[in-house]
Design goal:
352 residues, Quinone Oxidoreductase, Chain A, domain 1, 7-stranded mixed β-sheet, 11 helices, 15 strands, 28% helix, 24% strand, globular
Length: 352
């Protein structure tokens, strides 16, 4: 079978498209013929050696995929050969065949195509865990999503709306704000491309805090910062950007607001705790990597809720780019350079 292989840490251009031995499922394992693979920023970190999860070489990157069950090992009862499934794993999904633990796979509905299934779980579960489980976002609250044009950001926009919140999308380009609006954002603001100096941070903090509540329906692309007005602060902030944007975001929280640190696309932030103390606010780290959170079969309530939203059209991944598996480095480069909107997908020759 073909797979993308990393034999040494370094630039993604060093990845190889190689033949590997076909895997054989053991006890409690499921062998899946992969049709589509979701590309995530964590894949870039893994091959560049920046992931906190240590792996032994050779590494096959990738944490999610969708396909058809080929074989099951002894003891597997929840799925059987021929069924369509999505799966998530620590690594290994950039391949034509992948072994998953039984609790790492979940049957997908008939109306969900493979590309949507391959990009559905990781982003949606991250946003669901952050907003539903940790922040406990309530109807009528105001949610700010930083990085709203990316996969997890778009999922957060949609889940925020499904939970009854008013959602403000924050992104670095007009194109990404248009996309967030199409997926339900009530308003939007375009922040400057960083890194921001101290003056830029202060300006953004003032703009965010001053413009947090808007009862009108202004288009998120009519103005840069001013589509959101009459501020009192955001109840919840979903921040997948980090870097020099984090402290301005913290300063725009409401009293007892909840700031969710979800990722560091712009770098790991260094922030003052002053805004947290004076607002009685909470900072939460969001790392849905624990097995009970990461694995679909071990979080059936969340999966059923998210699939219910999918069935109603409330939670759908946006597929913006599709590449053949052999061109994985090109696909990953879109994420590494922060050029991707929505989700990027790899497809194998097995997809037909």
């Amino acid at each position: 079978m073909k797979a993308i292989v990393c034999r040494e840490f370094g630039p993604i251009e060093k990845l190889r498209y190689e033949d590997l031995a076909r895997p054989v499922p053991g006890v409690g394992e499921v062998l899946v013929e992969v049709h589509a693979v979701g590309v995530n920023f964590t894949d870039v970190l893994a091959v560049e050696g920046r992931s906190q999860l240590k792996r032994n070489f050779p590494i096959v990157p990738g944490v999610e995929a969708a396909g058809v069950v080929l074989r099951t090992g002894p003891g597997v009862t929840s799925v059987k050969p021929g069924q369509r499934v999505l799966g998530t794993c620590i690594s290994g999904s950039y391949a034509e065949e992948v072994i998953f633990e039984e609790h790492e796979v979940f049957r997908i509905p008939d109306d969900m195509d493979m590309r949507a299934a391959a990009t559905f779980y990781v982003a949606s579960m991250t946003a669901h865990y952050a907003l539903h489980d940790r922040a406990k976002l309530q109807p009528g609250e105001t949610l700010l999503v930083l990085g709203a044009g990316g996969g997890a950001g778009l999922a957060a926009v949609q889940i925020g709306k499904a939970l009854g919140a008013r959602v403000v999308a924050g992104a670095s380009s007009e194109e990404k704000l248009v996309l967030a609006a199409r997926f339900g954002a009530d308003a939007g603001l375009q922040y400057p491309k960083g890194p921001l100096d101290l003056a830029g941070q202060k300006e953004l903090a003032e703009a965010l805090f001053t413009h947090t509540k808007n009862t009108g329906a202004a288009s998120p692309v009519e103005v840069k910062i001013s589509s959101v007005r009459d501020a009192s602060g955001y109840h919840v902030i979903f921040d997948g950007v980090g870097g020099t944007y984090a402290e301005p975001a913290l300063r725009s929280l409401s009293w007892e607001g909840r700031y969710l640190s979800v990722g560091f696309a712009a770098g790991v932030p260094k922030v003052s705790l002053g805004p947290i103390l004076f607002k009685n606010a909470v900072v939460m780290g969001i790392q849905p990597a624990e097995d009970i959170i990461r694995q679909p079969g071990r979080s059936p309530e969340a999966m059923e809720r998210m699939l219910g939203w999918y069935a109603k059209g409330l939670l759908r991944p946006d597929i913006s780019a599709v590449f053949p598996l052999r061109d994985a480095a090109e696909a990953m480069r879109l994420l590494a350079e922060r050029k991707a909107t929505g989700r990027v997908v790899l497809v194998t020759d097995r997809a037909g």
